[in-house]
Amino acid sequence: MPSIFRTRVQRAAFHRDHHRQSLLDIYRISSSTSDSRAQTIDDTPADLILTALTPSTPTSSSPSPHSSRLYSSSTEVLLGITGKDFTIVAASKAAMRGATILKASDDKTRALNSHSLMAFSGEAGDTIQFAEYIQANIQLYSMRNAMDLSPSATANFVRGELARALRSRKPYTVNLLLGGYDQITDKPSLYWIDYLASLAPLPYAAHGYAQYYCLSILDKHHHPDITFEQGMKILRMCTDELKRRLPVDFKGVLVKVITKDGIREEEYADDHSVACP
Amino acid sequence: MGSPFSINGGACVAMVGKDCVAIACDLRLGMQALTVSNNFPKIFPYGDVYLGLTGLATDVSTVSDLFRYKVNMYRLREERPISPQTMANLVSSTLYERRFGPYFVSPVVAGINHTTGKPFICGFDSIGCIDFAKDFIVSGTASDQLFGTCEGLWEPDLAPEDLFETVSQALLNAVDRDALSGWGAHVYIIEKDKVTKRLLKGRQD
User: Fold this and answer.
1) Residue A192 to residue B37, Cβ atoms within 8 A
2) What is the DSSP letter of A60?
3) If pLDDT is split at 50, 70 and 90, which confidence band does A110 have?
4) What is the interface pTM, i.e. ipTM, of the complex?
């Protein structure tokens, strides 16, 4: 791949001195307490060094399943549902910074090509930087080859870039959902990728706390060949449950649909109130 | 978070029989206690040689992609398929290249050497130390349980059908005692001129 889109080099130079010291401290602390193998920081993700080599903390002290830097992204909602001939991707509209909501109409998605859409959550700067880097490269591929990369090829490319960054000095803290429609096989697709670059093709998926509320609903109601209307009905059940149980207001969701005709935004009313038990 | 080896969960086992080998894995992908996918196979076929990878899911994908590239390049260069023994040494040296920043995986290799006709299995730690075994190899979060079930069920010179039953029971009963593994299994029975892949449903809880 060409280097014209790789603006990370400049950032790398800027951050080098700041991070080198703190990571070396981490290594020094961890290596003295490690139980077995010595490791250096060179190729290991920073938070993996921590988890791998520092003495394990009691599980009761870490309520979040994510690393501590991810807690704000846990309240961001990403949902994906596939059906007979469509993929629905929903992303919360609140742009949050700590306890403050900066914007209530945020679009956490980017169209990669005519039939694949990426939704993202995670650390503020990383998300858009990574998403637009991917978007640019996928679009470049379409221009050079006069054909689009398939959703599965796109997913594996994205995973590769995220995995490469994971073992760099400053990994991207970004969770992704990749919704697409494969025009060759005529099948909808959905890929779940977390910030460690774990890739899973799934019929329905969620990121953050939405997983705990929505996956059980989807387990019960989802079927591989549901119609679009049924899909929207299940999405409504999910967002209602999130409204009911999430402690923060995520300002509703932006819904995008990928079909054989391409990507479109779907009207989604969220002005009704939800009864709470 | 605990160790990177147990964030996503998963289990893999390989066994030797009479003129055959078996390799099997579970299908779970999780984040701690939350199951994200129940269709995440951990065995990757490279021609005649089979590689099982448990551990951190991102590294399972990265390492399997890397070996697909390396084994394809080997076959093109040498104009012959890679043998299990050569594969074992390739895995070992590739992992040791990352000695001070390892891939968090515990690989298992299984196959039949087509020159000698002998079955071959081996396992590795994450930095490439090879564990040659005459009987069975276990890896993953259910490895303790697998040691127990394999030790109890395995016997020498099992025929392919008996080996399938043994490896399946060993895996299924081990992952049912492990919260991070399970949700179905893939079982490969490799004979000289035939490979049988079976999908086991397993408990869905």
Assistant:
1) yes
2) G
3) very high
4) 0.95
